[in-house]
Amino acid sequence: MIQTLEPILREHPFFHGMEDQHVRLIAGCSKNVRFGEGQVIFREGDPADHFYLIREGLVSVQFVIPHDGLTTMLTVGGGEVLGWSWLFPPYRWHFDARAQQPTHALAFDGKCLRAKCDEDHDLGYEIYKRFMQVVTERLEATRLQLLDIYGTHA
Amino acid sequence: MAPMLEQTEVVTAGLVPDPMLPVPYRIQRVRQETDDTFTLEILPEDSGKGFSFAPGQFNMLYVFGVGEVPISISSDPDDAPLLKHTTRVVGTVTKAMRKLKRGEIMGIRGPFGSHWPVEQAAGRDVVIVAGGIGLAPLRPALYRLMAEREKFRRIVLLYGTRTPEDMLYRHELEQWRGKFDLEIEVTVDRAASTWRGNVGVVTTMIPRAPFSPSNTFAMICGPEVMMRFTVMELLKRGVAAERIYLSAERNMKCGIGFCGHCQYGPTFVCKDGPVFAFPSIAPILGKSEI
Amino acid sequence: MRTLRAMTAGPLHVGDSVVVEREHLEQLLQALVSRGYEVVGPTLREGAIVYDHLTSTEDLPSGWTDEQAGGKYRLKRRQDHALFAYVVGPHSWKKFLCPPLQRLWQAARNGKGMRILPEEEPATPKYAFFGVRACELSAIAIQDKVFLDGQFVDPGYKARRENLFLLAVNCGLAGGNCFCASMNTGPKATSGFDLALTELSQNGRHYFLAELGSVRGAEILAAVPHQPANDADKQHAERILDDTTRHMGRRLDTRGIKELLYRNYEHPQWDNVTERCLSCANCTMVCPTCFCTTVEDVTDLTGEHAERWRRWDSCFSVDFSYIHGGSVRATPRSRYRQWMTHKLATWIDQFGVSGCVGCGRCITWCPVGIDITVEAGAIRESDSVKAPADQSKDSA
What we know:
Chain A is α+β, with helices and mostly antiparallel strands. Chain A contains four helices and eight strands. Chain A has a single domain, classed as Sandwich (Jelly Rolls). Chain C has helices at about 20-35, 95, 135-145, 155-160, 180-185, 215-220, 230-245, 255-260, 270-275, 280-285, 330-350, 360-365, 370-380, and strands at about 15-20, 40-45, 50-55, 65-70, 70-75, 100-110, 115-120, 125-130, 165-170, 195-200, 205-210, 225-230, 295-300, 305-310, 320-325, 325. In chain C, the strands form four sheets. Chain C has an eight-stranded mixed sheet with strand order 3-2-8-9-10-11-1-12, with helices on both faces.
């Protein structure tokens, strides 16, 4: 008997307010994953065919900057979304992601979901609406980071 | 353990005969906290002139022949008359202050200003959001909370700095985490990959922080931009506006409401603040050039 | 009420009015001098009527009047010998109560020690202000609220204020920039004085109606020849004051002014006034209620002796609001807005009264003639939110 991840999805804030049929559709594309401490989840340039909802743990979003080495731009923790590059061509990751701590997440098959969204535009709307929110919040947070608010001129 | 200061018991320099005269204090210790931030520990020359203070209050610190600056008190009120002031080197006076050594004398006027009304947090979850050196004016409130830990429910400290090297009081934070049932989450704006903790602005930690918004008391201190966004996130989560307190900062010359420099809208930061309940400054918070 | 035996009439009570002839005014001034007061009042200097030491009534600007407009001040000769037929000049009485430059304390450093030496007040001067206008009495009362009524008291101000004798003069004419009637601060002095004079002239007789405002005032008057005032004298004075009230040079609509300015922080009029305002700070220097100061810490060459001085400052200076890295009010626009909003609006929340007494000095002494009544009017004209039609209470 296959136990679906539907109940687990419904608990996650990302899916609040989504109709059961849509949650079911998405559950069909999802699976539980675990990453060990230090494990690379994906690298810059890799095909971006997944996104992750972190259940527990901490993931670093990192770039390699010449002369500075590997720099962490952001960390993503429990309850948060990792990755939106699966939504738009060329469907490639723009950064590295590495688990800082043992991390437990839900992984979603992007290819599978893109196909389902093309078929069911209502599903597409629900997903893009939620991703828009994630991207907006991330952008606002990044702006604050850019302002360098702790600098001496703050 | 000293009893909690009631609002009516706030010790102010109104009790001191002449609040315009500095009192000599001797430096006991100078501690470098980060590359541009240091802490002075001082005691009054005349033990009779020592005073206690309420968390959130500030003193005017005088460097002989150079000048005076307002700096929040960041020590434990129970350690009074010992005072600690953590400050950054940002101008002529703080630069000269950094050069002072153990055994030298400086002048103190105070304590001035309003305080964190920690007593209002009794029976509630307490959320403290600190940005950069903003942790310094909040530290006395943390001491107060821990002195009577059983009076509060969950206590959460969210602390953000530019980089891990800019964090204040790291050793103390570790101790508190272990000893006092205090949840501490730190984050930095940027870090090398050797940093194993959170990266991102401190406001991003608010949605996930473990507190019940309907019964939470919040204290915020940091750069004005950070405080504004923090208030927004707390309100978004459902914390009551009147239970959110901030500490503001303005140019001060006298500290006692006579020189006019610290005016912030209709308030004088030196006497109506520096600690403000959010609703009292909501109309002007974020308005440019007020 | 204590009653005092007068030299020529019956006992005097606070609230009584008497008549003093011009030739006896000198005795009134000398009565103050002989009681140890340093008498200061209006006198003519360098083309303006300023406040300075008076040795006798000869020092008063007899037969002079002033003409004031935006950025304009001229003295003109009159045909008579009226002593107070002008309004207010560039000085206000704050130059005596809050000296422009004051040493707060000295400090000496020896070895690793430091000693603060508070200023021993040289006997605090006992001033008699001779010729205070009603608007100025209000200004003094307003500064009392700042320096005496808060959590902290300014000891120097308190000492100077306690010893002060206030001889008020009711204005016989209104100046071109006056609007005390709008601010309810004049032209009649109603309280806060020891004596209040109204200068009267009829059929060649030059005399003063004197109202007793305090026991101290009655004591002084008892030393001067006087007669009880009759109804005709009182009505004459009333008529003059009514006339003055009706001829105010300017008018300020104060209805809901606090809320008006609070909701118009982004009004285009601020940009408009910025094109004219030089941030020269003249208005704050001449304003009788502006109280901002700064402190300067100085040291001698050996570094062993330090002093702290307090001096007048202005919110128009760029570094007034400086905090690490920059000024909060970096633009002249924000600084003009700060001054005017403070004067007419936030002052009310801070001290319970308006900060403006309608003396018009800021209009006269602004080099480009910016007029606070016009600026406030322009904002009211195109208010961002229309006030409810039935709002008619004064807000001050």
